[in-house]
Amino acid sequence: MKIERLKEIRNDKDLKQEDIAKILKITQVQYSRYETGLRVIPIYHLEKLAKFYDTSIDYLIGLTDERKPYPKSIIK
User: Fold this and answer.
1) Does residue 49 contact residue 60 with C-beta atoms inside 8 Å?
2) What is the pLDDT of residues 28-76, one digit of tens each?
3) What's the gap between Cα 39 and its chain centre?
4) In the chain, where are the structural domains located?
């Protein structure tokens, strides 16, 4: 599955694949494979990217068009 949002949100921030690869501590080639769908992106990388971009994993993978992250629940 190709995840277009990864490239879209990266380009919106004027970042290169190399920049994101450094954040994830992987190679640019590995990151490129995530964007093109040649490799499945691990959940821990999606979590890191969602935090970095201040959005939700659902937005990154195209399950929602809402860019804002979900509010944190307060469990009492």
Assistant:
1) yes
2) 999 999 999 899 999 999 999 999 999 999 999 988 888 888 777 655 5
3) 14
4) 4-60
* Amino acid occupying residue 18: E
Q: How confident is the model over 8-40, as pLDDT tens digits?
A: 999 999 999 999 999 999 999 999 999 998 999
The answer to whether domain 4-60 has CATH 1.10.260.40 is yes
12: tokens are: 């919106």
Altogether, the residues listed in the chain come to a count of 76
Tokens of 43: 């959940």
- Compute CA distances 69 → 8, 18, 31, 43, 60, whole Å: 17, 25, 23, 16, 11
* Tokens coding 16: 């290169």
| Contact (Cβ atoms closer than 8 angstroms) between residue 28 and residue 17 | yes
